[in-house]
Amino acid sequence: MKAAVITFPGSNCDRDLAVAIERVTGHAPTKIWHKDHELPKGLDFIGVPGGFSFGDYLRSGAIAARSPIMEAVKSFVENGGYAIGICNGFQVLTEAGLLPGVLMRNDHERFVCKSVALEVATTSSAFTKEYTNEQRVDIPVAHHDGNYRCDDETLARLQGEDRVAFRYTENINGSVDNIAGILSENRRVLGMMPHPERAVEKAVFGEDGKALFTGLFAA
Amino acid sequence: MKVEIKVALKQGVLDPEAQAIEGALKRLGYENVEKVVRSKSFFLDIDEETEEAARAQAEKVADALLANTVIERYSVAIVTG
Fold first, then answer.
1. Residue A219 pLDDT exceeds 80
2. Which of B5, B70, B74 to mutate to test the interface with A (most CBs of A within 10 A)?
3. In this complex, do B17 and A105 lie within 8 Å of one another by their Cβ atoms?
């Protein structure tokens, strides 16, 4: 599986994501600059990393979502490519319209930075198939704008179509239905606020994030 | 042509920042302040001759970038003087 990771000005988890992928696949993903217009030929997976792209100006992820590379990402996803947006990457994917809803300011107004317990809400995706249903996993979060919101109709669709991938076991930011991560309609795009790429090493936050990458790249 | 694009959260969307400001005002003793609503204003110079054209362009700009219409509403006004 051929992977690439995008870097925007202000991305700070692009390297972590690349390292996590390389550990699982044995191949370093291609690094893509936000001003590029094309993705590598034959690409299977694109990673949109965490960080503070464009300083969170205007709205988190808003300016990155209109970067030149995002047109290529949109057509890549429309053609069935796999994509993950983590933290700021999740915000970018919602701003780009590739995932529904928005990530608003945490309801308690504080930045939250700690390892949290998540529940795997569906195993029916390449990202989550190596977990078990309702499995509890510890994954770190670090965000100020992680309060997932969408209209009632969208929420009902996400629930009805089994598209909630992860839920917080304790609501840490105000997200509706404790949503920590969601899947696209074709289940090939995952957006999540917690950082699985930061949980692939026993000594640092444990290894609960690893199965996401092994599941995906064994697909 | 100068236009102002005002962007605010749609009614019913919770705004924790506005709530925090409201709480601070109450703590400062402004107890009769009952509600705070935040909005952002963008002032654009648009190279168009008519108000209609400037307004239409401002609306495109708002939809393309300045507002996330999932949670935000916007209004456009021509700035005179």
1. no
2. B70
3. yes
- Other Cβ atoms less than 10 A from the Cβ of B31: the count is 9
B18-54 confidence digits (pLDDT tens): 998 999 999 999 999 999 999 999 999 999 999 999 9
Q: How far apart are CA B33 and CA A26, in angstroms?
A: 60
CB of A154 closer than 8 Å to CB of A100:
yes
Q: CB-side exposure of A165: number of CA atoms within 13 Å?
A: 28
Average model confidence (pLDDT) for chain A? 96
Q: Are A66 and B63 in contact (CB under 8 A)?
A: no
Q: How close does chain B come to A94, measured CA to CA in Å?
A: 10
- Hey, is the C-beta of B64 within 8 angstroms of any chain A C-beta? yes
Q: Which of A13, A87, A95, A143 is catalytic?
A: A87
- With a CB cutoff of 8 Å and minimum separation 6, the contacts of B58 are B3, B5, B44, B46, B76
Tally of CB atoms within 10 A around A84? 28
Q: Quick one: pLDDT at residue A19?
A: 96
Maximum pairwise Cα distance, chain B: 49
Inter-CA distances, A86 with A73, A179, A196, Å: 15, 14, 8
B39 touches chain A (CB under 8 A): no
Residue A75 has pLDDT above 70, yes or no: yes
Residue A37 is a catalytic residue: no
- Of B12, B66, B61, B22, give the one whose Cα is nearest residue B40: B66
Candidate list A13, A95, A143, A197, residue with the active-site label: A197
